[in-house]
Design a protein that fits this description.
Strand 8 and strand 9 form a beta hairpin. The two termini are 30 Å apart. This protein has a six-stranded mixed beta sheet with strand order 6-7-8-9-11-10. 38% of the residues lie in helices and 16% in strands.
């Protein structure tokens, strides 16, 4: 992996032109926050830029993109943010593979696909890595950039509940809070607490059908796509459901298996105090963090896929 330090990355950003900023499919608060924060930074430098994603931005994050309109142009520079692996680009992979000049990321599972990388695996979020970069550059952070950066750090740490929220994370948030009086209470409620009636009903249905390992240390939820259709729940609404299994006392590995409308399954995993789900996700061609990861499985019946995930998780937990 070709690593750049903060000074080299800052020079790259100041000298680049006509930038396409890539964020991963099924966009979350961190990739959206870091992508649109970087867009604002480049715009301040007078650089033409746009954020590109294979999937629409979920409604709950629309407050980060209000008033932003992109023009069409061919890129001279391509930067990926919060993208650990090319497969996470979804339908954009074919267009940009082999053309990514810089990756700004924090995933320990980053595959080093970009020509150059500003990579901090100790950061809680790509937004935290970007914050440290902007601080080293003495860049004048605006209120909108602060909103983007806070959202990324808050969502990737589960509102600062996960173990990846370190001292530097809290220091960064404290700095942002000193700069701007952001509506933290209402932001956190919107990001973490508010759910539609359909999503509440879906959560109840999922928990009623939870599959447990023999020792009750692994909990798996299987989400058929037809349930989402029946309850009127969009794909964007179910991201937080991956945290539900860990609400069960004693669970060390929580697994959410989401059936996809086009076929196949997307799997999200969460870990308690003693598990490393990044290892399990890598086994299935995915990746992520020690406490949060994901992967995809293209084929198999729901029963076979769930059984396989359970067996591999049990073997790795007990290794």
């Amino acid at each position: 992996m070709n690593l750049l330090n903060a000074g080299q990355t800052a020079a790259f950003l100041r000298e680049c032109s006509d930038v396409h900023i890539l964020i991963h499919r099924s966009p979350d608060g961190d990739c959206i926050g870091s992508g649109y924060a970087l867009y604002a930074v480049l715009t301040a430098f007078g650089v033409r830029a746009r954020v590109c994603c294979a999937d629409p931005i979920p409604p709950m994050y629309r407050f980060l993109i209000e008033g932003v309109e992109f023009e069409e142009f061919a890129p001279q520079t391509v930067i990926a943010v919060d993208v650990a692996d090319l497969q996470l680009l979804g339908d954009l992979r074919e267009q940009y593979e082999g053309k990514i000049d810089l990756c700004i990321d924090h995933h320990i599972s980053n595959t080093g696909y970009a020509a150059a990388n500003f990579w901090n695996p100790n950061a809680s979020a790509a937004c935290e890595a970007l914050y440290t970069l902007l601080k080293s550059m003495q860049f004048p952070i605006t209120k909108q950039i602060a909103l983007c950066l806070y959202t990324g750090m808050a969502t990737d740490t589960g509102c600062f509940k996960f173990s990846n929220a370190g001292a530097d994370t809290f220091a960064a948030v404290a700095d942002l809070k000193r700069m701007f009086d952001l509506p933290y209470a209402s932001l956190n409620r919107q990001l973490f607490d508010v759910k539609s009636k359909g999503r509440m009903a879906l959560d109840a249905r999922l928990m009623q059908a939870v599959q447990m390992s023999a020792d009750d240390r692994i909990a798996l939820l299987y989400l058929p796509y037809v349930w989402m259709e029946e309850l009127g729940v969009s794909a964007n609404e179910v991201d937080g459901a991956s945290n539900l299994p860990l609400q069960i006392a004693g669970v060390e590995i929580g697994i959410l298996v989401k059936e996809q409308p086009e076929g196949g399954y997307r799997i999200s995993m969460r870990a308690g105090d003693h598990a490393d789900v990044s290892v399990i996700c890598r086994h299935f061609g995915g990746g992520g963090h020690v406490k949060a990861g994901g992967c995809s499985i293209a084929e198999g019946t729901p029963e076979a896929v769930c059984k396989m995930l359970m067996e591999v998780s049990e073997a790795m937990l007990n290794a």
